[in-house]
From TrEMBL:
Top-rank taxon: Bacteria
UniProt name for this protein: Integral membrane protein
Region annotation (Disordered) ranges: 246-275
Annotated TM spans: 15-35, 55-76, 88-108, 120-143, 155-175, 181-201
Biased composition (Pro residues): 254-269
Keywords: Membrane, Transmembrane, Transmembrane helix
Organism field: Natronosporangium hydrolyticum
Length: 275
């Protein structure tokens, strides 16, 4: 194991990336454990940081970590590999703290334990997956093809750049069709972009809103097929993914039930004012 680590991580210059990945995973496990203990009102756990009654969210600490360790990584000389690895690990911890409250930043309100709060877990999983692919040696086709384009002769750059631009266009179409994971992984495996862009869009995606609801018969048929495919294939996967998220990050709070309706129907509003 030590020989593999030295050969695949240290010798290839990926030690800072590995430390960033490890720091992000450790930071996520720690903060999710902390928030679940706070949610369960465990007495021996310190709880929220609330000086003077002000609840300081952990995204604040994450931003501070990222700024501090980001500056350290820029200031440390390249030959001090150990310190650069420490800075990368600290930056990874800060990234985990920020992404764990990504939904709060997106909605500008505390939706941590609501259904909208799942966006935080999804964002952190996406960053973790992409970092893991980079760590094991995969490179986005953009990096490889761009290097070829820059080193080609000026007259040949246009023809060398054409496939790159085409794949980028397919990536945009795939994401607009609601297939975010396919679009991201397709940056490393381009064949997925061709498949994702050619197949039907998800029914609630921007592409479906633009192309499948224009009143034409063909658009209506595509929307019906997309809804049928969503119900048959995607919804069981989504339910399984929700269960995985509940195990890892905790289940969201259920919305409060509506107030009961009186047996005789709702009471008419009372009139107020001077008699």
């Amino acid at each position: 194991m030590a020989a593999w680590f030295a050969e695949r991580i240290i010798d290839t210059g990926r030690l800072p990336l590995f430390c960033f990945f490890a720091g992000m995973v450790v930071g996520f496990v720690f903060i999710r454990t902390s928030t679940r203990l706070i949610r369960a009102q465990v007495r021996w756990w310190p709880g929220n940081v609330e000086p003077g009654g002000l609840h300081i969210h952990h995204v604040v600490f994450g931003v501070a970590f990222m700024i501090f360790f980001g500056v350290v990584s820029l200031a440390v000389p390249d030959d001090l590999a150990g310190w650069r690895a420490v800075a990368a690990a600290g930056f990874g911890v800060g990234t985990a703290l920020v992404l764990d409250e990504f939904a709060l930043i997106l909605h500008l309100q505390d939706v941590y334990w609501s259904e909208e709060g799942r966006a935080s877990v999804n964002a952190l999983f996406v960053v973790t997956a992409v970092t893991g692919l980079l760590l094991v040696g995969f490179q986005p086709f953009v990096v490889e093809d761009l290097n070829l384009v820059l080193h080609d002769a000026p007259a040949a750059r246009f023809w060398a750049a054409a496939p790159l631009l085409g794949l980028l266009a397919l990536a945009v179409v795939t994401v607009l069709k609601g297939k975010t994971w396919t679009g991201l992984v397709g940056l490393f495996v381009p064949i997925l972009l061709i498949v994702g862009a050619a197949r039907l869009a998800r029914p609630r995606s921007p592409w479906a809103r633009w192309r499948y609801r224009d009143g034409r018969r063909r658009g209506t048929q595509k929307l019906t097929r997309a809804q049928r495919r969503e119900a048959r294939w995607r919804e069981p996967v989504n339910r399984a993914w929700d269960r995985v998220q509940n195990v890892i990050a905790g289940a969201p709070n259920q919305p409060d039930p509506p107030p009961p309706t009186p047996p005789n129907g709702p009471e008419p509003p009372t009139r107020s004012g001077r008699s």
